[in-house]
Amino acid sequence: MAALDQSAAQADSRKGRLIATPAALYLLLFFMIPLGVIVTYSFATRTATGRTVLTGWNLSSYDKLFSELVLRIVWRSFWMASVTTILCLLVAYPFAYYLATRAPKVRNILLVLVMIPFWTNGLIRIFAIRFLLGSDGPASQLSENLGFGTFRILFTPAAVVIGMVYSFLTFMVLPLYVAIERMDWKLVEAARDLYAGGTVAFRKVTWPLTRSGVIAGSILVFVPSFGSYVVPEILGGAKTMLLGSYVARQFGAARNFPFGAALSVVLIAVMLIAVVINQRAEANRA
Amino acid sequence: MSTTMRPTKWASRLLALNAWLVFAFFYIPIIVLVVFSFNGSRRVNIWGGLSTRWYPEVLQNEVILDALKNSLMVASISTIVATILGTSLALALDRYRFRGRKTLDGAVFLPVIIPDVTMAVMMLVFFAQVFRFIDSFGPRFQLGIYTIVISHIAFNISFVAVVVRARLGQLDPSLEEAARDLYASGWRAFQKVTLPLILPGVLAGALLALALSLDDVVISAFVTGPGSTTLPVYVFSAIRRGVTPELNAISSLMLLASTVLVLGSLFLQREPKSKTNNQGE
After folding, report:
1. Distances (CA, A) of A24 to A20, A29, B79, B93, B128
2. Do B129 and A37 lie within an 8 Å CB cutoff?
3. Which of A176, A232, A247, B139: CA 20 to 30 A from B3?
4. Mean pLDDT of all residues in B232-247
5. Which residues in chain B have their CB less than 8 angstroms from residue A138's CB?
6. Model confidence at A2, in pLDDT bands (50, 70, 90)?
7. Chain B residues near residue A117 by CB distance under 8 angstroms
8. How far apart are CA A42 and CA A265, in angstroms?
């Protein structure tokens, strides 16, 4: 019997591997190997003419990461991504709570209203923000007509943060909604019976129970904000250079592939740290 | 929910206020953009009367139409391939235990979360390196539509796999087991039972892949070659040159297209009413 079970398990394992192979090979060839290539490039040398030479491995691209200019860009990207994440959390938590506590019929309609902008072309949505916030655009005109005077917000860090919140807010809403929706309300009720206070019940019960959603949402907002390229390119100015744009520049005008690769490794490292944090959180919940 | 744990009146008012502000934040920029696409004036910020003049102008622009054609081609090929590969990956990860499964499970998540710009430069450098290698044998390759397609499949496989897996997780594996007992062949059981059950998930995954491919600007911009500009790449470079009424019109058309996609996806994903009622107890 045990032998039979074992051979069945072996056949099962063979079949699983067979089904997974085409996709796994594709991801290996066109994702993992490119990932490896970019890491390799970060140790390569740039010649005076801008070519990349794959001999004489060195760490000089990494040395450059600690120059004042780069540290300032990394720091700016970090705090802008942090502000974006915190703003998204502050807005999305009560929003998701509101959605999750509606009657099923209303909830479904509201969810559709959340999904429509989410599926809308991201570039177009950023363009919409640029148009709205333009120096004599509709928002500025409205504020002038109301007697508040015109404003110039485009090409400032504030505009970039608004754009990132606009782009990534749904990534925060969805995991929070799932976490709040599947929460066991009886626990909150029990807490209310014991503690009575709403704030305490929230802090001791609701918040811990929905923490996995908070972590997942924060990661889904922080990682793309930290590496954001399109938003600062369209809404930011010369003084709001972020890491994503700086990386892109190394593969364009600056033509310094090894340095661009080293900068990408920073983005990859942040991404991997986020994945590990998320897995830890998932494991704790289970 | 019992009445004792309902938020107090002012708290629930604040919750509602916050919700409507969020919806306003989501929709006002989009609505303003669409309204201004019907502005007759060449100066985008000055209202010059209602007009549809920019739409025919956009739809007759050869460059835009070529870009649209490229986008549709890239999106359809990458969606079909990624849906097949992503679905099989989801099935393997959900149903079978094999060596390397854990690693694969972790790796699937990476293309979902990787910042666009990182994936873009990674693919660019990869193709440059591969071309350099191939060139040493004679034939000369260039970046083009196919490099965009290859890159889009790479990230779409993961998105499809994640969506399909979520659907598989909700299924009762005993259904497939019962079918296997009856039909004996695993392929028949898959065809007759599993596939129809996961089809809404597969279609939702395919639509997401389609939307993501039509959405992508950064990766396409990096691995595009001469004559293979996609619509978002065209729009991106046009935005950087400045806001024009034509841009407002293209954007409104793209908004319309994505709204149709969402509604289509929601329509496909909706649960048949009778079924959900029966699942109660």
Report:
1. 6, 9, 17, 11, 23
2. yes
3. A176
4. 91
5. 32, 36, 45
6. low
7. 26-27, 30
8. 8
Residue B280 has pLDDT above 50, yes or no: no
Give pLDDT, residue B8: 74
Tell if the CB–CB gap between B258 and A35 is shorter than 8 Å: no
In a domain, A149, yes or no: yes
Q: What ipTM was assigned to the predicted interfaces of this complex?
A: 0.88
For the segment B173-199, what is each residue's pLDDT rounded down to a tens digit?
A: 777 777 777 766 777 777 777 888 888
Nearest Cα of chain B lies from the Cα of A225 at a distance, in angstroms, of 8
The answer to the question of residue A120 being in a domain is yes
Determine if the pTM surpasses 0.90.
no
Please name the residue of chain B whose CA is at the shortest distance from the CA of residue A257: B125
Give CA–CA dist A251/A52, Å, rounded. Answer: 11
Question: Within an 8 Å CB–CB cutoff, is residue A57 touching chain B?
Answer: no
Residue B274 distance to chain A (closest CA, Å): 16
pLDDT in tens, B105-156: 888 988 988 999 999 999 999 999 999 888 888 777 788 999 999 999 999 9
Annotated domain spans of chain B: 65-269
> Total structural domains in chain A?
1
Q: Check A230 against B217: CB less than 8 A apart.
A: yes
- Domain with A115 in it: 66-285
Structure tokens at B69: 């054609």
State which residue of chain B sits closest to A168, comparing Cα positions.
B26
Closest-CA residue of B relative to A94 is B15
CATH of domain B65-269: 1.10.3720.10
8 Å CB contact between A135 and B36: no
Contact flag A17-B243 (C-beta cutoff 8 Å): no
Q: CATH code at A126? A: 1.10.3720.10
Q: Per the CB < 8 Å rule, is A91 touching B18?
A: yes
| C-alpha–C-alpha distance, residues A81 and A224, integer Å | 8
